[in-house]
Specification:
Layout (H helix, E strand, L loop, with lengths): L2 H12 L3 E4 L3 H6 L6 H15 L5 E4 L1 H5 L2 H17 L3 E8 L3 H12 L8 E4 L9 H10 L2 E7 L6 H4 L9 H12 L9 E5 L16 E3 L9 H7 L8 E5 L1 H4 L5 H14 L6
Parallel strand pairs: 1-2, 1-8, 2-3, 3-4, 4-5, 5-6, 6-7, 7-8
Length: about 270
Amino acid sequence: MSFGKRLSAAMAQFGPVCVGIDPHAALLRAWGLTEDVDGLEAFAEICVEAFDGRVALVKPQVAFFETYGSGGIAVLERTIEVLRASGTLVVADAKRGDIGSTMDAYANAWLGNGPLGSDAVTVSPYLGFGSLDPALSLARANERGVFVLAATSNPEGAQLQRITASDGRTIAQTMVDEAAARNADADGLGSVGVVVGATLTEAPDLSALNGPILMPGVGAQGGGADSIRALVPAESLAWVVPSVSREILNAGPSVSALCAETERLQGEFAFLQG
C-alpha cells in the first residue's frame, strides 16, 4: 500500500496530528535527563511509549540525534525500528537535498531498507526540483513518502521562496505544483507531500496537490486551527497534517501527560478530518 494511502488510513484512525521527537538540550534538562547518549535514549524511549500506536505519524528531528555522533544515530535507528515494527508511521525530518549520486545515497539511507529506513523523509528542493528525482523514484518503488519543503515559516525563507519566476509563479508555488504533478496519477491520497509553515501569513495555492500537507509551527510557535483555515482551501483541509513538537513535549516526561496533551490536540484538529 502506498504511503499516501497508509497515512490517510492512520489519520482516519488516530487523528491528523504528527508528533515531533525533538530532544534538544533544554528539553533533556527539563525532563531531568543527562545531555548525553544515555539521556537521549531515555528521552526517545519515553516518546516511543507515549506515541507508539497512538498517532498517525511520528517525526524524529534527525539533527538532535546527529549531535551525539554514532551513539545518537544508533538511538535514532532503534527509535525508527520500534515505531515502524508496530505500524506507526515515521517521517525522518532530515531535510536532505543534493544532486546525482549523493542524492541517491540520501534516498537509500532514508527510504531504503537499511537501519535508518523510514516511511517518509523531508527533502529540500532548492537545488532544483529535478534534483529530488532519486528520492522520488525510490519512494515510489518502495511505497514510501517524501515531504518537499515548499513554504517554510522562518523569516529567511521568503528571500528565496517568494521570488516570482518568469512564469508569474513564486518559487514556493512552483515547488507545490511540481509535487502535485507527481501525485496526478495517485489512487487516493498521493505520497508526495509538501511542508508549509502554519505561521505564514499567506501560502501557495494547495488546491491541486492531492498529497499530504505537513504543517509545522503549530502550538507553542503560534500556529493553530485558525491559521490553518486561513492558509489552506476548505477542500484541501483533509490533507493537512499539523506537526506539533514543543507543545506536546513540554508536558513530559510523564507518559500519561504526553498522551493527554496529544489527545487534546487531536480533538482540536479533528475538524480536518471532517
